[in-house]
Design goal:
The chain is mainly α and 343 residues long. The chain is built from 19 helices and no strands. Helix 12 packs across helix 14. The chain folds into three domains: 100 residues, no CATH class; 124 residues, Annexin V, domain 1; 82 residues, Orthogonal Bundle (Annexin V, domain 1). Keywords: Bacterial flagellum, Cell membrane, Cell projection, Chemotaxis, Cilium, Coiled coil, Flagellar rotation, Flagellum, Membrane.
Length: 343
């Protein structure tokens, strides 16, 4: 007789992560996935673990969770209307102290009371000008605090040599004391003319650099990686192992390549394969019909001589589409242990 799943019928038995899991389940796959995209990897892992273990939730629990989150959303409005202290007091009535602290930090970031949050909304040109006058270590710490897309935008506008220096410092960055963070914040406040408070969302190490380089254009990506390789080949290898590069398509399972082909622009494929290794071209052809393969060969030859920038831009669009497909769960670019199948 199959084991009956335990009914979740008391919202007070749920912790914060479990409540988020209930909320996402109630929203449906599409909306839940769009929310997960905005969270850190560790948060996504914790939440999805809870989702995977939930299968029998009472309607009363779902309703209670929705009402609680509705209250939290309203509390963000109170931040604007009644100030941070008022919002904190409202939250204290409904949440445990550690949960209140976490929510308030997120609210501080959204309302502009987070020092490093300033760089999320400031003009990129102003940030670039500011960073160029600062020590690379300060720039590395600042970029480590930003979300990867924003950090990638800023890194892409910096001089190539400075890009490499910052990336290397981020990749080798250890734990940073609160005193050092405070000193850097003081520099920011003095130079940028703000009076903001401390942030704690620090991303560092080779994964941080990999994530940021995944957001810049291919030319910048290759320049930074190439320069790091000249100075520290092992470090460059560690960074690349956590990135997904256009050349890595050759390592993907055939079924994923077929999905990619079906979802990318054909002109991008033709342009993106100009001048690449024969093995990579063959990888695509191996996953096409005979007719499609012949048409691809003819189109690549007919394209003639093209500018390197056109090729890199096409490759970037293909990589971006692959990342979208991975977020949707249609493909996997993981470079760790290969999947095992049993016939």
């Amino acid at each position: 007789m199959p084991k009956q799943e335990q009914l979740i019928d008391d919202v007070s038995d749920l912790n914060g992560t479990q409540k988020v899991a209930v909320l996402l389940i109630s929203l449906g796959v599409e909306k839940a996935s769009s929310i997960l995209k905005e969270l850190r990897d560790d948060e996504v892992e914790a939440i999805t673990l809870e989702i995977a273990t939930m299968s029998n939730i009472s309607p009363d629990v779902v309703e209670a969770v929705i009402q609680e989150f509705h209250g939290l959303i309203r509390s963000e409005r109170y931040v604007l209307e009644g100030g941070m202290d008022y919002a904190r007091n409202v939250l204290k009535e409904a949440k445990e102290e550690d949960e209140v602290q976490g929510i308030m930090k997120r609210l501080e970031s959204k309302t502009g009371t987070d020092t490093f949050g300033l760089f999320q909304s400031a003009e990129t040109s102003h940030i670039v000008q500011f960073l160029q006058d600062e020590h690379p270590q300060i720039a590395a710490v600042i970029l480590a605090h930003l979300n990867v897309r924003r950090a990638g935008e800023i890194l892409g506008e910096l001089p190539p040599g400075y890009q490499t220096e910052i990336s290397m410092r981020m990749a080798t960055m250890g734990n940073i004391s609160s005193e050092v963070i405070e000193e850097i914040e003081k520099v920011i406040r003095d130079q940028m003319g703000t009076t903001l408070t401390q942030s704690a969302n620090l991303r560092r190490g080779t994964l941080a650099v990999a994530n940021i380089l995944n957001e810049v254009d291919i030319s910048t990506e290759r320049s930074v990686i190439g320069n790091i390789e000249k100075m520290d080949e092992e470090l460059a290898h560690d960074i690349k192992s956590q990135m997904f590069l256009f050349e890595d398509i050759i390592e993907l399972a055939d079924r994923y390549v077929q999905i990619i082909i079906a979802n990318i622009d054909r002109n991008d494929l033709v342009m993106g394969l100009k001048g690449v290794e024969d093995e990579l071209v063959q990888k695509f052809m191996d996953n096409m019909s005979s007719r499609a393969k012949q048409m691809l060969i003819e189109d690549i030859e007919a394209a003639g001589q093209v500018h390197r920038n056109q090729v890199e831009e096409a490759q970037q669009r293909i990589v971006s589409k692959i990342k979208e497909l991975e977020e949707e769960g249609q493909v996997s670019t993981r470079k760790s242990n290969a999947e095992e199948f049993i016939e």
